[in-house]
Amino acid sequence: EFKKEEWVLVASVINTTNPYMISNIEGAKAMSAKLGIPLEIVNSNNSSQTSISSILAVLASGKKPIMFVNTVASSDAPTIVDAVGKAGGFVTIWWNKPADYHPADVGPHFVAFQKHPGVSSGRCGAKAIGDALGGKGGVVMLPGVQDSTTSQTRVAGFEAEIKENYPGIKILDSRPSNWDPQLGAKNARDLIVKFGSDINGVWAADDGMQIGAMQSFENAGLLDKVKFASDGLYPTTLEDIKSGRGGNAIVGETFHRGYMASAVGLYTAYLAASGQMDPATQPLDKRESLFKLSCLTPANYKEYLKYDEPDAPAKFIEQLEKVGPWAAEPMPLVGGGAEEMPK
Amino acid sequence: MEAPTVLKLKDISRTFGHVSAVRSISLEIRRGEVIGLVGENGAGKSTLLKILSGVEQPDSGTMEINGVPVSFRSPNDAVRAGVGVVHQEQSLFTNLTVAENLDQRNAGRIGYKNWARVNNECVAALKKIGVSLDPTTRVSDLSFVDRQMVEIARAVSIDPNMTGTPLIILDEPTAVLEQTETAVLEREIRKLKEIASVIFVSHRLDEIMRICDRVVVLRSGKIVSDKKTSEVTKEDLFRDMAGGVSQTAHAIRKRLPEGAKPAIEVHELARKGKFKNISFTARPGEIIALVGSNASGREAVARAIFGAETYDAGTIGVKGKRVLRWSIRKAVQAGLAYLPAERKVEGMIAGFSATRNIALVYQGDGASGPFLKLRKLAEAAQGWFDRLEVRPNTISRPLINFSGGNQQKIVLAKWLNSPYTDVLLLDHPLRGLDVGAAQTVNAEIVKACENGAAVILIPDTIEEALEMADEIIVMRDGGVSARHDMRKTNNLTVQDIVADMV
Amino acid sequence: MQFVLPKEWKGPAALIASIVVLAIVFTFLNPRFGSLENFRNILFQVAVPLIIIVGTTLVIQLGSIDLSVQGIMGAAGMAWILLSANTRLETDYGIWAWVIGIGIGLTLGLLAGALHSLIKVPSFVVTLGTWYIGLGIGIILYGDAMLPSLKSDVLMAWPTKLTLGLPNAFWLAAVILGAGVLLSRYTHFGRGVLAIGNSETIASNTGMPVHTIKIIAFTLAGGLSALAGILATMQLGAGSPDLGSGQLFTVIPAAVIGGTALSGGEGGIMRSAVGVFLLIMLNNGLVLAGVNPAYQSGVFGAILIAAIVAVARPDRGILKIEK
Amino acid sequence: MQFVLPKEWKGPAALIASIVVLAIVFTFLNPRFGSLENFRNILFQVAVPLIIIVGTTLVIQLGSIDLSVQGIMGAAGMAWILLSANTRLETDYGIWAWVIGIGIGLTLGLLAGALHSLIKVPSFVVTLGTWYIGLGIGIILYGDAMLPSLKSDVLMAWPTKLTLGLPNAFWLAAVILGAGVLLSRYTHFGRGVLAIGNSETIASNTGMPVHTIKIIAFTLAGGLSALAGILATMQLGAGSPDLGSGQLFTVIPAAVIGGTALSGGEGGIMRSAVGVFLLIMLNNGLVLAGVNPAYQSGVFGAILIAAIVAVARPDRGILKIEK
Ligand SMILES: Nc1ncnc2c1ncn2[C@@H]1O[C@H](COP(=O)(O)OP(=O)(O)OP(=O)(O)O)[C@@H](O)[C@H]1O
Ligand SMILES: Nc1ncnc2c1ncn2[C@@H]1O[C@H](COP(=O)(O)OP(=O)(O)OP(=O)(O)O)[C@@H](O)[C@H]1O
Ligand SMILES: [Mg+2]
Ligand SMILES: [Mg+2]
């Protein structure tokens, strides 16, 4: 049977300078408090190298890990999973893994791979901008790091949605901005020079880059002539939506919170570790899961404010214990297997 | 009545590891005196002077300047106390202008820099020693000698309106100068007597006799004699320095048969602004001396033959073959060796041990294929240390820790070490060598000749040329102004040659 | 000026030439490149690196190197924004925000300078250390609360606002640059830096205050990085611990391209500044020319090499040594 | 050996001492740090930087610098995996994957070396250029198709597999390291590198093949970076253009900490290797000690400085100059 003192919760974040990751840590802390199992936080400082070496180091610390990992690059996943297996632990990977690397093939210690579908994130943004522009106009895209699956799927979703439902919208240019606000701002400036008033909409693969881009457009005095959509709903972004900055410049966001991801991830791994759930017998969509991503707009954002209350993480975890990791609002399971890319 | 005492040393000592460079030296210098400091290489001259100028701190002993006890923690203290120095090795900022290098009194400051003042003072200081250079040129653009003049100017340009008598220290300032500049320097030193006291180091004893009032002889760190110049002869000094052994006669050289195939043929060689239509041939066993005042272009010629500088016109032939696209590497492979005048900059790797410096060019059986046999290299080095009487006799020391003259010996050994060397280009090979060492080195040069090497010599002194050379080529303003075949002419005098030089 | 550093403008001449060439090519590829708007855009972008490079150049002239730039930018930027009117804290300490922000930079610079100069630790490692420390400070200040953004529209608008047709951000940089040039040409400090870079032994033998000069240089560099961090924060309108990212590999190459040899003793602030323009312009031009992002880094590298080769040509000689 | 490189083992002694101290502290903070398992883990991690540092050290001994490491790793890694049995392409060229992968590294290294040595372009800029070019190649190979991972379990398992109780990855590194040490101590090339680093003028005055030596050094460095890239790809079991990220700022500081002065002519491969161990161990120890991630960078920086200060003490002297 399951002895708490033999185990340690581990949450690995890509950095600690991004609200999503910080929220990840919150969730992990809350989970640790709930389960009464100590927590180790691993900070990858944006480097696969640091990520892997740090995780290996934690594994060497004796206790068996119940782990939740945000991989820096997809390619980190196999190494980490192997190591966890050797350490007799259980791990859930979030966001990035090699496309052909499946928990079911690897074994029970790779409990699950989980993510919010990047494609639907991209589609959310495309819908929001497309509608806001009345289906006509030019948009520029600011993807994240080029070889990140997350960025690639979001981009694919955005482009597909535009192609299928908004023929009148023209994608003018696309400048990868490495999730970096500065670079987002810089590329935005250059694009403003390049296309001037032809730009009616800006889509960024995450809010960090959007924050930079909006600043550039504001400086250029164009903020109220352009519509923005992105992913992640950073607190700052929420403020801008509330305040209707730049004549409601932000028209679309996606709603998901880091604390939810880490809670779900850790809890799934915990169920496996404590023997309450046998990964081997789970259906595929519970091994490789896609969780609901809500499209958020200035019209409906109020419904989500409750999830940012200080006690929200605790509440969410209580809910998890009742309904399990795959049915918790606002992010129930919506699909499984590899996220299929629109063609 | 006695002139006031400017410098008073009592029991000054300084040791480096197990070498005691200076041993309890006591010395007094009065106002207006010019002291000649002589001694073999490694005797401790520079070390003593470094102590006086605050570069090194003595292990024991006391120092008084103008009656005030001093202990210099930095060269700055020395400058403030009125001690100006020309170090044996050049110490100028090559990336700064002449004026800035002279602006030593303000070295301690970090505030506003008044260029007008700095430049004017520089012009004045240079005028003082009869040199005219643009104060705003980068030192790196000056020839070696011009740099030396800048150093001297810096030493003598210490604060005029200071109280007490300044002490000027000159560590082998003439080693790199030709007769003409030496004359300028002598005149300057005489002027200095009015306002200052001078310590003057040189290995050229006749110079010492001419310039100094008193001669102090140093041997292995101790003062062995301290006499009025009027009371000593060159022979006395030599005996005191060498410790008994008297001066040996010049090495007589057995000539190789005439008409051997020329090792070097230079024909109508020219480089704009440096030298023009230079022609001469050097056969195995011959010594060709290039004499001339500074800026006569002779060093440039030597460097061109070695491939270190380009030439615009004319041809160079090596062992009968005319060379094309000449480069240092090709020159070395063809058996040429070049001993540069700027030892410190071009001759030695200061951080390397003597062994590794000597092994730079040729490893002999110290190498097999791409691999090195370190013990063999050590043996070779040891051999040279013994032949050239390098002191101290420890091959593992970094070169920087040897005295100037001993460094010179090691750099020379580097080239003599290679049996494949059949042309020696020697620029001031005796620079900074004491009389004894000079003879040893000359002997080595002669030996190289007898073994079939051709030598192109840029001598320190005309005497040296007269002693060594088979042919003397006199250069003026980059051109040849006279030739003397020493095998045919005798009774050629220094004056004759100086006449062709100026 | 000429007579102070005769060769001063030789390198830059070639550099400026190659900048002009590039500019022409880019304008040909996309006329908007030559537009006044883009000109202002470039001036806006060079502002931050221009401020940094004054310090960078001084340190490199010493023959040392300062890696701490990005760390200090992050720390100072975060401190500044948290002490100015921002969306996270109610407090607004006005001028003190500046004092403390820049103070952090000066302190870290002083620390690095002192350790390097007095305890003889390689500057490369010390400043790597202060880099991490700065980053650490930034991260701690960032904490886990929400990302702070500026409240005052005045401050946010200031960098872009035009004065005499040019953005304020650039004017600020220009002033710093001017001051830097004067400092390095008309003070004993500035010349001392070059002297030390040429030969530290001789410098101390002639009694220069070597330690003082080195420490001042590093402290100055730290302070300027901090100022740059504050300006960057203003430009972004929000604080972030790694808002300096990418700057180090803009300014050091810029300095080197400008002819400031890493071995010390050479080059000048103006020349480094020209280097900054080259790099920023190159980047901006590639975007405007619409080079496929996938090819961008490759092309950037190739052009960079081409440009520097072109620049290297003039003062090349058998005897010249490049490290 | 002694008299050839008198100080050779002085620095490392102090370094190794400070490593031991750290190890003790960390083990005290968390006994597991000293476990055999963690020891292997550290050996596994040092492998890649150890391979790189052989080249890095040679280049730094020349007085030059090689920034291209990460770019070359990415390019070579991608090329290698796409030519080996992988999940994206069906093709498997076996040995040719290695030839081409390492070939890319050698070529970029040769390019950098030639431009630097013959056209006298600062190595800093050239290798920055080749860095970008390498990165570009990686990105282009990556395209926007799916990320390729290794098919062969043998290859994937190889680096972690234990031989004589130590992971293969480490043995590979150890072999390279040994070869490097021999190369630099017992060949004309190795000694030439040091001579050039100490004084290029003299090196060429004594007729050394300066250009050849420089070019070989850079080419070698390129090739080793490529090999490191391939090993890293094996360790990850998948390819990525920026799988080298972070390496540059591991190896160069490591070399400097090891006492390889950036001004050239100093240090040795072994000493640099010790530096690598220090850095990797530091990182590993901090995590094991459970330092709050928010404080990690700060602490890392502080300890780094402390360690290097401790190391600097022994051969410290008024006359010593540190750049
Ligand atoms: N920094 C040093 N470290 C160790 N030994 C030194 C150092 N400097 C000088 N010495 C030794 O001290 C002794 C005296 O050296 P010094 O330079 O004073 O001789 P010198 O009289 O100037 O000789 P020269 O006429 O060749 O210049 C020599 O044996 C030299 O090797
Ligand atoms: N690096 C340089 N830059 C500018 N001019 C130089 C340089 N080197 C030498 N010169 C000039 O070239 C001419 C020849 O110089 P060179 O050194 O060959 O004279 P030299 O006769 O060899 O002097 P010495 O007798 O001291 O060896 C001189 O006018 C000198 O000032
Ligand atoms: Mg001497
Ligand atoms: Mg000369």
Layout of strands and helices, then pairs:
The complex is a heterotetramer, with one copy of chain A (343 residues), one copy of chain B (502 residues) and two copies of chain C (323 residues).
Chain A: E1 7-13, H1 19-35, E2 39-43, H2 48-59, E3 64-70, H3 76-86, E4 90-94, H4 103-106, E5 110-115, H5 118-132, E6 137-142, H6 149-165, E7 169-174, H7 181-195, E8 199-204, H8 207-219, E9 227-229, H9 235-243, H10 245-248, E10 250-255, H11 258-273, H12 284-287, E11 288-291, E12 294-296, H13 312-323, E13 333-336
Parallel strand pairs in A: 1-2, 1-3, 3-4, 4-5, 5-11, 6-7, 6-8, 8-9, 9-10
Antiparallel strand pairs in A: 10-12, 11-13
Chain B: E1 5-16, E2 19-30, E3 34-39, H1 45-52, E4 60-65, E5 68-70, H2 75-81, E6 83-86, H3 98-102, H4 115-128, H5 144-156, E7 167-171, H6 179-195, E8 197-201, H7 205-211, E9 214-219, E10 222-228, H8 234-242, E11 264-271, E12 275-282, E13 287-292, H9 298-305, E14 313-318, E15 321-322, H10 328-333, E16 336-339, H11 343-347, H12 354-358, E17 367-368, E18 371-372, H13 374-387, H14 404-416, E19 423-427, H15 435-450, E20 454-458, H16 462-468, E21 471-476, E22 479-485, H17 494-501
Parallel strand pairs in B: 3-8, 3-9, 6-7, 7-8, 13-20, 13-21, 16-19, 19-20
Antiparallel strand pairs in B: 1-2, 1-4, 4-5, 9-10, 11-12, 11-14, 14-15, 17-18, 21-22
Helix pairs in contact in B: 14-15
Chain C: H1 10-29, H2 36-61, H3 69-83, H4 95-118, H5 123-142, H6 153-157, E1 162-163, E2 166-167, H7 168-186, H8 188-198, H9 200-205, H10 210-236, H11 248-257, H12 269-288, H13 293-312
Antiparallel strand pairs in C: 1-2
Helix pairs in contact in C: 1-12, 1-13, 2-7, 2-8, 2-10, 2-11, 2-12, 3-4, 3-5, 3-10, 4-5, 4-10, 7-8, 8-10, 11-12, 12-13
The complex binds adenosine-5'-triphosphate (2 copies) and magnesium ion (2 copies).
